[in-house]
Amino acid sequence: MYYLQNRWKLKNDSLLYFGLRNTPNMLKNTVKLSKKQKAIIETLPRTLNEHEIKLLENLVGDQVVKAESLRKTPKCLSEARFCKSCCANDFIIPGIEFDESGNCPMCQTRENTKMLKSLVPLVDDIPRSKRSRFDVALFYTGGKDSTFMLYYLSKVKKLRVLALTWEIPFMSESAKKSIENAKESFGTVEFISRSVSKNDLGRVYKRLYALSGNTCACPSLAYLLFYPELVSNKVAYFIAGNEPVQALGLYYNRIAPKIAYSFSENRFLSFLLNLSRILTLRPPLKKGQFQTLLTMKQLAYGDNPLKQLGGYQNELVSNVVKAIHSVPEFLPPLKKAIRSSSRSGNIPAFVHFDMNKISGGEYDWNKVKEILIKECGWVAPSDDKKALHTSCNIEKCKDHTQFIRFYNCETVMIPFSALEFSLASRNCGRTKEEMLYEMEHLLGFSLEEIPECALMKEFLRDNA
C-alpha cells in the first residue's frame, strides 16, 4: 500500500509541500507532475503495480511512501521532535525535516546564510542632516527592539531622532508605559503619535481578518500614515527597528531570495536603475531610496507582478495591502508623497544597523533588556519571560492564526514567529528552559483557540 507522504498535497498539476525540507531541497516545495502521475496520485492510498511504480519513480521514497515511512504531525509540543542545535521542532513548524545528525534545515544552512542580514542597506553611521531638523526617523512601538534602536540612535550615536508611533488599539500596557518613560529619557528625540479612526480601522481589520484570520497590520499601516510626514520634514533616513532574525526568517519562508539581501551592493543593477531614472529626468537614487520606493509603492499600488512570477510573495503584506485598499481614502496622500519625493529625489532612505554588530557580536535578549530598563525606563511585559514581540496584545493571536492555517495546510507561509524564535534560540543568551517556557505559554502555538483572540473579535464586533 502506497500513500502520499504527510504534508504533501496535490494542487492543480503539482505536488505542494507544507513544511521546510532538508538541503539541498530546502526551498523546493513544488514538484511538477505528468498527467499520468497526477492520475495515480489522485487515487492514493492504494496498492500500486510495477508499471505505476515506474511511472512514479522520481517520487517514490519522498512524496510517495509505504505506510511504515509515513510521518505524522505532532498534536502538542511534548510529542515534537526538536532540532539538535536550536529550538525548531515539528510541532511549531509542521513538516520540518531533520538530517542524519538531527539538525533542521536552518541549522544545516547556518554558514551559508550568515551574510543574509537585512533586506535594506546596512549602515554604520548616519550623517547629520543639513536640510532637516532630524537626522533619522524610527518607527517606534515601545517594544524591546525598537526601544533598543532608539537608545542606540539617540544616546550612542547622538543623532536627532524623530520617533513615529502608530497607536494601535491593541498596544500593550507595558509598551505604553515604555513610550512615556522614553519621552522622559530621550531629550533629543521628538515623538509623534498617530491613530486611525475606529470606523476606518474597523473596515481595514474586517477585510484583513477575512483574508488572514487576524488583524495584524504592522508596520504597513505605520508606513502609510507617516511617509508623507517624512517627506515633508525632509528626513534623509528612516529605520524600522527589526531584530536580525526577522530578516533572515523571510529567506526560509521563501519570501525573499538571497539576491534581495545584496541588491543594494550590486553596482550593475544600481547603474541600470539609475540610468532609467536619469533618462526620465528624475534624480538618481542613493542607497536605501529604492527600497523605500518599493515599499511605499507596494502599499499604494499593490504587488508587482514580477514578484508572483518569481515565486516570491509575502502573503502577510499582500493581504494587508488588500485590506488597506478597502479604504481608498487612505491612498491619495501616500501616492502624492511618492510622486513628489520621486521627482525631487527627497526620498527618505530605508536603512538599518546590524543589531548583532552594535550589540558587541550577538543581539543577546537578556543583556538588551538590562540596558533598556536602566537607560530608557523600559517596562517589560507582565510576564517578563517574554522576549519575542513585546509591544502588542494580539501578537500571540497572529502567531496562533498563522500556525493554525499552516498546520492545516491552508497556506505555505510558515508562522513568522516559529522561524524567528527558532533562529534566535541559537544565540539569544537564554536557556533552553526559558525558550521552552515562552514557546509553550507566551506564543500562540496551540491547536485550540487562545483567549487573546477575543480581543480581535471584540474590536471587529464593536467597529464593524
Task: Explain what this protein looks like in three dimensions.
It is a single chain. By secondary structure, the protein is α/β, with parallel strands linked by helices. The chain has three domains: 2-71; 136-213 and 220-355, Rossmann fold; 357-462, no CATH class. The protein contains 21 helices and ten strands. The protein has helices at 35-41, 50-55, 105-108, 110-113, 144-156, 173-185, 198-212, 220-232, 244-252, 258-262, 267-279, 289-301, 305-309, 315-324, 331-344, 355-358, 365-376, 395-407, 416-424, 432-442, 453-462; strands spanning 2-4, 8-11, 14-17, 30-32, 64-66, 136-139, 161-166, 189-194, 237-239, 349-350. Helix 7 (198-212) runs antiparallel to helix 14 (315-324). The chain starts with a strand and ends with a helix.
